[in-house]
Amino acid sequence: MRHERGYTLTEIIVAVAVIAILAGAMTPLIFKQIERSRTARARQDLDVIKAAFTQYYADTQYWPCGWDPSTDDNVHGNFAVFRCLYEDDGNNGWDGPYLNESAGKVNGHYRAAVRQNGEWTGIVDPWGRPYRVFEANVSTQGAEYGTVVVYSRGKNGQVDTTDANLLAGIASGDDVVVIVTRKAADN
Questions:
Q1: Of the listed ranges 18-22, 48-52, 155-159, 180-184, the one predicted with least confidence
Q2: Residue 17 in domain
Q3: Under the phi-then-psi rule, with left for phi > 0, alpha for psi from -120 to 50, and beta for the rest, what region is 34?
Q4: Total number of domains in the chain
Q5: For 101, what's the count of Cα atoms within 13 Å in the CB-facing half-sphere?
Q6: Is this structure's pTM higher than 0.90?
Q7: Which end of the chain is more exposed for a tag (fewer CB within 10 A), N or C?
Q8: How far is it, in rounded angstroms, from Cα 67 to Cα 23?
């Protein structure tokens, strides 16, 4: 007769403890990698938006505008309202659409992002919010006149980067920043 030996309770407890310690050590690393992946995706999305803005300018000789340049100065705008990237806005040379993805039509016009049932859909950052656009000194001449920047507010949803750092392309906190142009804007 053969005796089969199983695992002792002590061996099982030691194995579970080792697995728990390894899982505890790995969890922060996994979450850190997930955030790095989200930041990389945001940077890729912003590069696509930059390319759309640049192509629009190449075709029309105007920068896309989602605000009123006659009344706004140092404007932070919601990227969702830049419908000229989807629809002909009357500028000579328009050859869009300049983006393939949208949230669909709202009141007969395409939107990059739309809030439905408390959540944003369409072109949104990895944290579920629309990207932002910043244009400096749209109504006044200055060293940064016409600088266009696209950015994400990152995981915390707050703009951590000052206007000056946005203009320099230097992100603070968890923001992700891409400069579209530093050339003078067309009004």
A1: 180-184
A2: yes
A3: alpha
A4: 1
A5: 10
A6: no
A7: N
A8: 49
